[in-house]
Amino acid sequence: MTRSKERKGERLRAIVAELESFANPANVVGMARYGIRAENALGISAPQLRGMAKKIGHDHALALDLWASGIHEARNLAGLVDDPVEVTEAQLERWVKDFDSWDICDGVCGNLFDKTPFAYEKAVAWSARPEEFVKRAGFVLMAALAVHDKKAPDGRFRKFLPLIERESADERNFVKKAVNWALRQIGKRNRALHRDAIAAAKRIRKIDSRSARWIAADALRELESDAVRERVNKR
Predict the structure, then answer these.
(1) Integer distance in angstroms from the first to the last C-alpha of the chain?
(2) If 0-12 CB within 10 Å is exposed, 13-18 middle and 19+ buried, where does residue 200 land?
(3) Cα separation, 233 vs 194, whole angstroms
(4) CB atoms near residue 184 (< 10 Å)
(5) Do 128 and 233 reside in the same domain of the chain?
(6) Angle between helices 60-69 and 89-98 (to 10 degrees)
(7) Do 70 and 9 reside in the same domain of the chain?
(8) Backbone angles phi, psi at 37, to 5 degrees
(9) Taking Cα atoms as reference points, which of 27, 187, 191, 44 lies closest to residue 107?
(10) Nearest Cα to Cα of residue 74 among 84, 86, 64
(11) 130 and 58 together in one domain
């Protein structure tokens, strides 16, 4: 083993040891109550993980090793410390197949995947996939891009609306909530997209599906509120 590999291994072990020092079994029980898959979880809070990530900085090689560990919080930390410039399309496809919990899906998509050059392409492709958390990832990316990509033209988000309508009848809880999230975030970008998202929600409301009716009602409740209307009219 080379010296560089030894140092790499030592650093990984040190970080895993630090993660384990924050372990809180009571939090693991609480995670399960919120629908978070608790296998291989330590019960570490988000602020603790973000504090560790701030100290570590961007480290692509370390992120790959953290992900490979299979530890729940190590994977969340991997999404925080990986460098989006170094993330490959192959890596996105490997990691998304490992998603087994909504918090990992949302954290990695919102902290890392949406900053890669593949984000829009994967949002479209994954939205059509059958796997629950892969499909969720597609819509989480749409929501994250709507919030984070401030300079993107409206056309990029209008292309998402037919996909949101197409998948609105999916009854799986983690899918329908992400579909709803994407629709609401697109509708809050500006006045034009607000109008388009409301129109899409009204079309979704007519679909003979309990999931679609919930998505439409919840989205319209927010998008037609005075607070949101006032916000988008200022943009």
Answers:
(1) 57
(2) buried
(3) 9
(4) 21
(5) yes
(6) 20
(7) yes
(8) -65, 120
(9) 44
(10) 64
(11) no
Amino acid at the residue 144: A
Q: Which residues contact 38 (CB under 8 A, 6 or more apart)?
A: 28, 29, 31, 32, 72
The last residue of one of the domains, among 83, 115, 131, is: 83
Contact 174, 134 (CB under 8 A): no
169 with 214, same domain?
yes
What angle, 0 to 180 degrees and rounded to 10, lies between the N-to-C axes of helices 191-205 and 210-223?
150
Q: Per the structure block, which two tokens stand in for 95? A: 């990691």
- Give the pLDDT confidence of 180-225 residue by residue, as tens digits: 999 999 999 999 999 999 999 999 999 999 999 999 999 999 999 9
* Same-domain pairing of 58 and 173: no
51's CB contacts (< 8 A; 6+ apart) are: none
User: pLDDT-derived band of residue 3, with 50, 70 and 90 as boundaries?
Assistant: low
- Residue 6 confidence (pLDDT) above 70: no
CA distance 111 to 51: 14
**91-127: per-residue pLDDT in tens?**
999 999 999 999 999 999 999 999 999 999 999 999 9
> Would you give the distance in Å from CA 186 to the centre of its chain?
15
Question: Residue 51 belongs to what domain range?
Answer: 1-83
How many other β-carbons are positioned within 10 Å of the β-carbon of residue 169? 18
